[in-house]
Please model this.
Amino acid sequence: MKLTGYILLLAAALIALFGQSPALAGAGSHTFGPAIITIPDIP
Model:
């Protein structure tokens, strides 16, 4: 569970970083969006 929490923290950091830049936010919503959704499903 520690590893899952760490991955979610990294995902949150990526969201924060890409949210700062409009250009990256547009691309990030498509590239990182699905990845963040599937990460919690990994046991």
The chain has two helices and no strands. The radius of gyration is 11 Å. Residues 7 and 39 are 8 Å apart (CA to CA). The first helix runs from residue 2 to 20.
